[in-house]
Amino acid sequence: MSAIETTLDPRMEAVTRRSKLHPLKMLLFIGCGSLVMMFIALTSAYIVRRASGNWLEFSIPTIFYVNTLVIVVSSLTLHAAYRAFKREAMGAYKGLLTVSFLLGIAFIVLQFVGWQDLAAQGVPLKINPSGDFIYAISWLHALHVVGGLAALFVTLLVAFIRRRIRNTPARKLRLELTMIYWHFVDILWIYLIIFLSLQR
After folding, report:
1. How high is the pLDDT of residue 52?
2. Which one of 13, 20, 50, 84 is CB 3.0 to 4.6 Å from 89, fit for a cystine?
3. Is the pLDDT of residue 17 over 90?
4. Is residue 188 situated within a structural domain?
């Protein structure tokens, strides 16, 4: 072990003991905070650009509202999977985790349907700033959902490979990190869809 690692480890342990927050969770919260600032900047730019004129008014695709329900339900099933994991209920854990993953995929698919709906309304990409903002905001969010799906896939793979679930601290932490991030992208989408709806 290097001198730097020897110095950092006790410091990290001391911070963890004081805050009662695992360092990885702290890093995740910092990352989520950075993403919040990025999306706030995007929505602020949306408001400023709209006030400048040359703005095309159109309806938000209905499928985006349906997708809000899809991602909310996926968060609920993932939280239920977490509770099943803590009880070491193998069947319920695997089933709920699978439902959460499939709902996440459904969210991405329905986003594509929404983008096609925008194009059908006469709002394809690079025609008007109003449409470009919708595409940029929803694409960026979808990209982060894909990141969450990757984490869910790994969790799902481990769940089906192992015959028995053991509620160890390491496995619990990995699941908690995945769940926190998934809840984050859920809340972020709710914020975005409310913001876009209020701008109509």
Report:
1. 80
2. 84
3. no
4. yes
**Residue 103 pLDDT:** 98
Which domain covers residue 88, as residue numbers? 38-198
Task: Domain count for the chain, please give it.
Answer: 1
Question: Has residue 14 been placed in a domain?
Answer: no
The answer as to whether 179 is a domain residue is yes
Residues in the chain: 200
Phi/psi of residue 71, nearest 5 degrees = -75, -30
Rg (C-alpha) for the chain, rounded Å, is 20
Among 5-19, 91-105, 113-127, where is mean pLDDT lowest? 5-19
Confidence of residue 176 (pLDDT cuts 50, 70, 90): very high
Q: Judge whether 44 lies within some domain.
A: yes
pLDDT band at 199 (very low <50, low <70, confident <90, very high): confident
